[in-house]
Amino acid sequence: SEVGLKYVKHEDVVNYPMPKNLGDVGYNYEESVTITEDITFTAGKGWAKIDFQPDTGEGTIELVGNKGNKKTKNGATFFIPGNHKKILGYIRTMKNVPSLYMYKERDGQVRIVGDKDNPAFITEAKATTGKGGEDDKGVNVTVESYGIPIVYEGVIQLKVVAP
Are the C-beta atoms of 14 and 43 separated by less than 8 Å? Predict the structure, then answer.
């Protein structure tokens, strides 16, 4: 993604559909990681947006564990410019909160880190003021989940913000 991602607390999700499993009717490689049904939320809740610095976001998928007992870990890393109070408060508040994170890849594919049974967590957040005038000032954040890499094709319901 170029400039942003979305997040929601795991507890705010009412319905989190899951991809097909091996043996399900219609199972194939694509359907094993795809959700076409909408994720729904409690009233007034939904995806909130985090803007980050262009060209600093990265989605990852890796296999972890021992041979014959591999698991999937997926994540995202992004750099939020600045060190203002809202960013620092977000890190303080969300550091141990089970969540879901969503980002759009450059080709338009929407990916989610975290699923119904395996929420995502912030695993790293490192803020810097920068050492010199040309250094970036901001927070580098990594979120990860031990679960299926999800491709989301449903409706993206944004959080209701009071006027």
Answer: no
- Tokens 């969503």 correspond to what residue? 102
Q: 3-class SS at 90? A: helix
Tokens 């990681």 label which residue? 33
Tell me whether residue 154 is exposed, middle or buried, using C-beta atoms within 10 angstroms of its C-beta: 0 to 12, 13 to 18, 19 or more: middle
Hey, what are 124's tokens?
A: 């790293």
Phi, psi of 158 (to 5 degrees): -80, 155
Cβ-in-10-Å burial (0-12, 13-18, 19+) of 152 comes to buried
pLDDT per position as a tens digit, 89-135: 999 999 999 999 999 998 999 999 999 999 999 999 999 988 888 88
Tokens of 29: 């490689």
CA-only gyration radius of the chain, Å: 17
